[in-house]
Write a structure and sequence with these properties.
The protein starts with a helix and ends with a strand. The chain is elongated. It contains 1 helix and 11 strands, in the order αβββββββββββ. It has about 140 residues and is mainly beta. Strands 3, 4, 6, 8, 9, 10 and 11 form a 7-stranded antiparallel beta sheet that branches. It has a 4-stranded antiparallel beta sheet with strand order 1-2-7-5. The chain has one domain. Strand 9 and strand 10 form a beta hairpin.
């Protein structure tokens, strides 16, 4: 069982590396001031040896400062996503919203309780540390 849990954390870790693809569209106004930009966050995945990897996404939060005052909650397409349906160039928009035109420092995915992985026909709960409290940090 311990080996399965280690494998599950490895799956989540590997998925996290390729989980988020961001695009930021912004520009300067005629006066040289930074205009707000629209941040769009897409989710995708790499192939793994599992039948399902389900992530219960509740909220996407972005921090654009080095302190705790820069958090912005994006308009999130909440739901349970099977990451294996998001492979081989397939992605989906999970959140978007206006943010200041600063560098993004951190992204957090706040997860619900319904995360799971299916291997060899058996569904296992997928535990993500801090996923339901502060969010899965990227």
């Amino acid at each position: 069982m311990r080996k399965l849990l280690v494998s599950l954390f490895a799956v989540v870790g590997a998925t996290a590396i390729v989980l988020i693809a961001c695009s930021k569209n912004g520009s300067r106004s005629g006066s040289g001031e930074e205009k707000p930009t629209t941040l769009k966050i897409h989710m995708t995945d790499n192939p793994i040896n599992a039948e399902e990897v389900n992530v219960d996404l509740l909220q996407v939060r972005v921090n654009f400062r080095n302190d705790s005052t820069g958090w912005v909650d994006l308009n999130t397409n909440a739901g349970i996503y099977d990451l294996l349906g998001l492979q081989n160039g397939v992605d989906t928009l999970i959140a978007s919203g206006p943010i200041p035109s600063n560098a993004v420092k951190e992204i957090r995915l706040v997860l619900g309780p319904n995360n799971s992985i299916k291997i060899s026909g058996v569904m296992h709960p997928l535990m993500v540390p801090s996923g339901q409290q502060s969010g899965f940090k990227i």
